[in-house]
Each structure stands twice: as C-alpha cells, then as structure tokens.
Amino acid sequence: MNASEPRRRWWPRSVRARAALAAAVAAAVLLAGTGWWVHREIYRKSTQVATEQAAVHVWSLVDQLKEGVVPPRTSTVPYEVVATGRRTAVAYGGGMDDFHPGTHHVMPAPTGEGAPNFVRLPVNRDYNPGLKGDVAGGTQQVVSADIGPGELSSDAAAALGVAADARVRVYVVVLPSAAKDITESTDRMLLRAGLAGLVLIAAVAYCTVRIALRPVEAIRVLTASVNASDPRERVTVPATGHEITALATTINTTLQRLDDAAAQQRRFVADAAHELRSPLTTLLASLEVALAYPDRTDWPATATTAARQTRRLQALAEDLLLLARLDTRAPVSDPETVDLTALASQLADQYPRTDRPLALSCDSTAPAHVRGNHDECERLLRNLLDNAARHAAHRVQVSVRSEDDWVVLTVHDDGPGVPPEDAERIFERFVRLDDARSRDQGGTGLGLAIARDLAHRHQGTLTLTPRTLGACFSLRLPRAPAPAET
C-alpha cells in the first residue's frame, strides 16, 4: 500500500453507523450475559426437577420392595436394586439391562457408609440415543435409598431372593437428557431472539441518531455559506432544549464574535488609514509647496514641519505595531518584580515640562510590587500620564496603594472630565472626545487602548472612576511578594 494513502480502518466513518455498531455491541454483551445466566438457571432448575422426580421414584420402589414385589423392568427411569451377599442385582430396569446386570450388578454394593451421589457406569457400546431413558455410561448422578437389615419381612425377603438380614439399596439414575433438551431448546430460542434484537437495536440506534443529527446537518450547511463578505448569517436554534440547542447557540455566539471582530478590524483599518493620511497629506503638501517655490520657501520651517509630521507617523506606527503584538495574546516576556511606586515616582519626576504650568506629583512612598515586564509597565503608566497631562488644567496627581491582593494605582487630573456615557468608549482605538483639539496635540488616539490591553496582559484592569472634578483612571494589578533582600 502506498504510504501516502490513508490507512483504512475497520470501523465505519459515519456517526450513525458508529452509534448503531456501538449499540449493537453493547446489546450483544448484555444479551450474551443474560443468555448465559438464563442457560445456567434453566439447566440448574431442570436438573433439580429431574432429581426430585428420581427421589419420588426411589421411594416408590422402596415401598414395592418392602411389600415383596419385584419392580418391573419396563421403567422410564434407569434403576437398580442391589443387596449385600448377592452378586447379581435384585431388580433393574429402564435401560440398565444394556450393562448385563444379570451377570453382576452395576451399582456399588451397599455398605454401612453413606451412598454415593455420583456413580461411574461402564460405557454402553450398544447405546442408542433414540431410546428414551437409555444411559450411555460414564459418571452419572444417582439418587438412592436403603432398606436396613430387619426392615424386610421374611416373606418379602424370600420373594426378593435376599437374606432377611441383608441391606438393600435402591439406585435411580438422574437422567440429564431432559435438562439438556430443555436447555438446548431454550438456547436456540434465545439465540434467535438475540439476533433479531441486535438487528432491531442497531436499526433503531441508526434511525434515532440520523434523526437527531438532522439539525446538525442543517447547521453545517448554513455555516458553510458564511463567508468573510457576509458573516451575518445565523443558524436556527431548535426549540427542543437539548444539546443541539446549545451547539446552535454557541455557533451563533461565535459567528457574532467573528462578525464583531471583522467589523472592528474594518473600522480599525479605516481609522488607521485616516490617521496615516492626515500627516502624510500635511507632509506632502508642505514639500510640494517648497519644491514649487524654492526661492520663497522658508526651508527651516518646512524641515521643522516635516520632522514633526514624521515623528507623528513614527509614533503612530509604533502604536499600531504594539497593538498588533498585544492582539496575539502572547504571554508576558521575562516577567520580573516591578515596584509601581518607584516607577510612578520616577516617571513623575522625569516627565517633560510643557509650555503651560502643570503640577505632576506622586504622593505614595510605600513599595507596591507586581509581576510583569518593566518596559510594558512603564509604557502603561506613561500613556496614563500623557493622557492626564494633555487634558489637565493645572494638576495631575498619582497615588499607589495596596488593597488585599491587589495594587491600585490612580491617575487623577483636574481637566474637564469624561461624560458618564463615554466612560468605556474612551478605551476604544482612535477615539477622541475633544474633536476641536488639533491632531498634533491630541495624540494618536491609541494611548488608552494600549494601556488597557497592557493591563489585561498583566491580569489586571483599567477603568475610569467617577469624579466630580476631572478624570480619574484606576489601574488594578495583582500584588506580588517583595523580592528577597541580599
């Protein structure tokens, strides 16, 4: 067989056929166990009935012998009567004559010990299985009863041809043929019923699974028609409330997430193109005017404008690359213990001064350690400080504190604040609430989005806390133990 060809398996590929096969195998195991138990019980019960019938026959023979009557040989049950002091049998019948008991008795002579329950008979070479009651030989179960010395009258002993003080024992062979016939007949009936039951169970399982999978097939056909150009298609949710309903609901939820992600991606691409086009347009216009009128161009001013727009393009490109990396949900690289208090104090002291008076302070001194990447934590805090400084009127205050297993950092400015209805919208990408602000001073519109993604990347949260004056951003990160001092 070619190595590239898939290896064939003996089990079917269809779910319906597999379910039918599994149901048939389970039913076969159950029916086989039940049939074995029924076989054992029927054989045991039939053998018990045959033993009880043999016991009744034994006591009937005992009653006849006590009256001095020799039982007839025409019996449906093999029996033999033996006595002490006598080489031949007192009486026999039911097929025992095939063993030539006229020469000597077949059953053991009676002794003072208990009678055996099983007796080994010589093999009957003239055995005819068509004759009822015929014994083939071998080890057979027997039922016996004794007539003790003195229990027979002299007349009865003389009629039987035994001594008056002889011990007489009556043997009746328990025929297993009836039990075997009943058991074999029951086995054949159970086998036919079992095969018919297996076929019925497999057919019912196949049809049931086929009917149950119809909604799945409908879901498959419908989801196959979903494409990137039209992801709004939704599957029909069955009203039965079973597992297919949960599957349909999950698929609809997944399709909705994909639709939202595709719409968000389209908006992101459109916004990014718009943001990139604005500085490129300004840069291109400035250079084209300078090239058209080189003698009347203020080249230092033109170079300054070009440098400013290039820096803006560089910042926007770096933010876009960072967002693309954060969207991959990669784990934090090189996690370490970071002291947020020290980092916030350092950034507040080193923050570049602006043309307008702005007081930026950090009022926390106690160490507050978290686990993460130092550069990413610094980028997160710097974005929060840039946003606060851009909107603050005179003051920005940073505070760090520990609450149970969390470290909480807040950045509060005294600017115009954020309307409650926009508390979540400001964390979206390319969102600016101050439309009148110029693009150069308003930033790229990605700072808060990057800050929230970095917070989530460090298993934390970033939210806007309601304040009467200004805006207050609250960052919560899991607290880490302080590093051991050396």
TrEMBL record:
Record's subcellular location: Cell membrane
Any one Gene Ontology molecular-function term assigned to this protein's record: kinase activity
Positions of the Histidine kinase domain: 271-481
HAMP domain location: 210-263
The entry's keywords: Kinase, Membrane, Phosphoprotein, Transferase, Transmembrane, Transmembrane helix, Two-component regulatory system
Pfam family for this entry, one: HisKA
Biological classification of the source: Bacteria, Bacillati, Actinomycetota, Actinomycetes, Kitasatosporales
Catalytic reaction(s) noted: ATP + protein L-histidine = ADP + protein N-phospho-L-histidine
Claim: Mitochondrion is one of the keywords in the record: no
Organism domain of life: Bacteria
E.C. numbers: 2.7.13.3
Protein name per Swiss-Prot or TrEMBL: histidine kinase
Transmembrane region(s): 20-38, 190-213
Organism listed in the record: Streptomyces demainii
Enzyme class label: transferase
Signal peptide, first to last residue: none
